[in-house]
Amino acid sequence: MNLRQRDRINPHLDLDTVDAAADLMALNMGPQHPSTHGVLRIKLFLDGEVIIKAVPYPGYLHRGVEKLCERLTCVQLTPIFDKHDYVAPMTNEQALNIALERMLGVEVPRRARYMRTILAELQRLASHLLWLGTFTLDIGGTIGGGASLMMYTFREREPILDVFEMLTGARFHYNTHQVGGNRHDIPDGWAAAVKTCMDQLAARMPEYEEQCVTNSVFLMRTKGIGVIETPLALELGLTGPNLRASGVDLDLRRDAPFHAYDEIKVNVAVSNGCDTHARFEVRIAEMYESIRIVRELIDNVPEGPICSLKPVRTVNQIKLPEGKQMYTAIETPRGELGTWLIGGGAEKGACPYRLKIRPPSLHAMAALPYALVGHTVSDVVAVLGSLDPIMGEVDR
Amino acid sequence: MMGPVDPALRDALAKQFPDVFAAEGDLDPNGVVVPAELHVALAKTLKESFGFTLYVSVIATNFPTSDGETYEVATVLRNPTTAQPFWWRVRLGADPQLATLYPLFAGADWQEREQFDLLGVNFVDHPDMRRLMLSEDWEGFPLRKSYAIDTPHTPWR
Amino acid sequence: MIPNPWLNGLVVGGAVLAVLMTLGALASWWERKFSARLQGRVGTTILGPWGILQPFADAAKMIQKEDLIPRDADRVLFYIAPLFPVTLVLGLAAVIPFAGYWADGVWHGAAMVADVDVGVLFVLALSGLMVFPLWMAGWASNNKYSLLAAMRAVAQGVSYEIPMVLAALVPVIASGKLSVTGVIAWQAEHGWIVARLPVVGFLAFVLFYLTSLAEANRIPFDIPEAESELVGGVITEYTGIKSGLFILSEYLHTLVASAVATGMFLGGGHVPGLAGLPIWAQVVISLAAMWFKTLALFVSIYWIRWSWYRFRSDQLMELCWRYLVPGGLGLVASTAVAVSLGWV
User: Fold this and answer.
1) Global ipTM
2) Does B109 touch chain A (CB under 8 A)?
């Protein structure tokens, strides 16, 4: 049977062309399944345990956010954006507010840009810690070694959320960004708390890394699994760690700087492995890099105002120009989170006319039909975990 | 971001697509409007000759007008070497039909399905033009401006 | 010790049953506390001191739970499948002498339900049967996850049976006995297998230990359960006390497999310096020694479980057929050579 097309897996394989003797079994993995990271359904066509065709069905978490965006004003949108990627709300807010600022041509004060950079890197750490825990949970078992590492990573994530709580008063869904800057200024003792948290994490990270890379079963389960070749990764629009694990040296933090990234050096981790283990390596390296950036910036936050516009008083105080449209993207923990924003919507332009969110996770999910074929049911959870999808962001 | 496009790129594109790209001045920051029949050719040129190999997104938008409806489909590509994005728009009529980019970019598969799902833009020759997010029997296209936000629907079971 | 086999079976069997069932329940509590300590948690604390009564509350809850049967399930098989694992595991325990004593210069087994002449064979046969209830449950559930898990369980059980038999052959060849008591008596006289047969004895012990892990479906060999892939494996569709029986049987299997490994390789209840003591003292000390060794193995199994990851099923098969089976054959051959040359 010919599973491949144009030198790669054919995701639209006609099952009638498959050898009838193979006697395929259709297995619905999800929408209720312990390891699908939310409500994803993957229909697997199995020959024994080997996957012949995989058809993912996203959409179980579709909440019509883009329609909602056309009815809410720019000021009201920030808390909505918190809820797409519920593992990294901070960077989601930033993606929206940067898009609005670029369209309006608003300058952000230097202090706010530094704060945003620190928050983005802390959020990247929190997000990657959660990813590491759930990834090993998938490979190692809910009742087993994987759960042990998950407990540790959740313990490490806690101080980061505490730091966010000190700043914004919320452990999640912060609503701390606004057009022109930030809403909450740094409280007393915050820098010390961040440094303590980073010291703790920096001391413990090598242990967690070692627990994975010195474990032969972990290596057997990840190496050579779920290969996404470089051209395919580019075509699919994989971004962030997934793209860098496929050997493309592209990081918007360095290549199209936003926040204060143009003032600091960002070392980008790239791997040519293209497989599950490469994605693991890239994310681990990014965590070390994030710790370094936070430590570098936390003592150097410049003084000054944190917002260049007057604070939010009414919901429709920000009006978008009509007839202007643009694409803006920033690098979130999962990759390129872009927004296509068209100004001049309802409420005399206070709402966007159209706001299309470009979620990195959706593109990562689109890689599944290619990455899974030829592997077994056990590998589905490893590949899915390594792509780090957040279903809230996939479905919106 | 898009800002003033690299002049070398603009000139090269102006040679290949003289009707669309002017050789002088900045390109439209909102995205150059390209005729529908040049859509695939432009994407192919950008991918193969100018290194825009990273498929970023496709965005369809519904514009109700006094005499019917128009649609705009914007496509965003990125050059992974320079990190430079490039986007263009295609204007479509009341019955939006546009050639698919799936043969060029595998990622167009799901993205075009999503735009079909939410706006009803039909991508011709797409191998699998089904709804992506909503259930198969959903009526209407939610992101069209004529679709009221409180349109009733039967719960999906 | 009790001359009448019927009376012996009743008294000792009852005692072994009671002890094993209690230990099986306590094992689940202990595992929760142990894993909690490994992960920086506290574990159960509420019911009884250190939450030790939790397993009994769990059992009471499981008995009360609604008994769901999937539509189109094979009802007969679905009902009887959970009965077998516990029964088989308890049957395994019948031929293990949990204590022993010196009399007339010979080591005698004590606290055993039945001194079967072919005890080792009996143990291997019963553990070979363990795949049947899993297959019955997986097939009867009418669930694809259960079916896949059952397929994996059978493949794994049948494959790992072979290296297990090979590993068990090493003490059998060395001692020339097929009863567990005989093997232990030989070890009491000549030294424990792990020490008496340098390298080979230890490797055979490791092989037996690994295959016991696989037979008891513990990480890294818990492919049939694989809850992050196959939801709940064969017990996906089981509710209440039926799933409880499966879970209990896993704890019991780990305990009994540890006891068998202790008997076959670690000298059972034998510890040096027993000879000359009164018989009752020997029995008490050897009973304690047997349980100490068994529980030490048991702890190590759970330690591995909570710190290792899981193989994939094809990697598991590869490990078995490419490494363990040839290794086991090599061990058997070298033991045979050693015995025939009179080195042992």
Assistant:
1) 0.85
2) yes
DSSP class of residue B14 equals H
Q: Is A172 an interface residue toward C (CB < 8 Å)?
A: no
Assess A25–C contact: CB distance below 8 Å, yes or no.
yes
Residue A110 is classified by DSSP as: H
The shortest CB-CB distance from C312 to any of A142, A151, A378 is to A378
Residues from chain A that touch B109, judged by Cβ atoms under 8 A, are 11, 366
- Residues A173 and C60: beta-carbon distance below 8 Å: no
Q: Is B70 domain-assigned?
A: yes
Q: Does A377 touch chain C (CB under 8 A)?
A: yes
pLDDT, mean of residues A176-189? 88
Phi/psi at A73 (nearest 5 deg)? -80, 165
pLDDT in tens, A54-96: 899 988 888 888 888 888 888 888 888 888 888 889 999 999 9
CB-side neighbour CA atoms (13 Å) of B30: 14
What 3-state class would DSSP assign to A354? strand
Q: Which residues of A touch C223 (CB under 8 A)?
A: 378
User: What was the pLDDT predicted at A129?
Assistant: 92
The three-class DSSP label of residue C106 is strand
Q: Where are the domains of chain A?
A: 75-314+379-395
Q: Which domain holds residue B81?
A: 7-95
Check if A223 contacts C (Cβ < 8 Å): no
Summary mean pLDDT of chain B: 83
∠ CA A142-A148-A153, nearest 5°, is: 110
Cβ contact, residue pair A141, C312, below 8 Å? no
- What CATH number should be reported for the domain holding residue B15? 3.30.460.80
A60: contact with C, CB 8 A cutoff? no
Task: List C-alpha distances in Å: C178 to A9, A218, C18, C117, C253.
Answer: 56, 40, 27, 6, 21
Asked if the Cβ–Cβ distance from B1 to A102 is below 8 Å, we say yes
Chain A residues touching C313 at Cβ < 8 A: 49, 376, 378
CATH number at A75-314+379-395: 1.10.645.10
Chains in contact with chain A (at least 3 beta-carbon pairs closer than 8 A): B, C
A340 φ/ψ angles, rounded to the nearest 5 degrees:
-100, 115
pLDDT tens for residues C158-183? Answer: 888 899 999 999 889 888 888 888 88
Partner-chain residue, chosen from C148, C227, C313, that has the shortest CB–CB distance to A141: C227
Pairing relationship of beta strands B122-124 and B97-99 according to DSSP bridges: parallel
Question: Do B83 and A252 form a contact (C-beta atoms < 8 A)?
Answer: yes
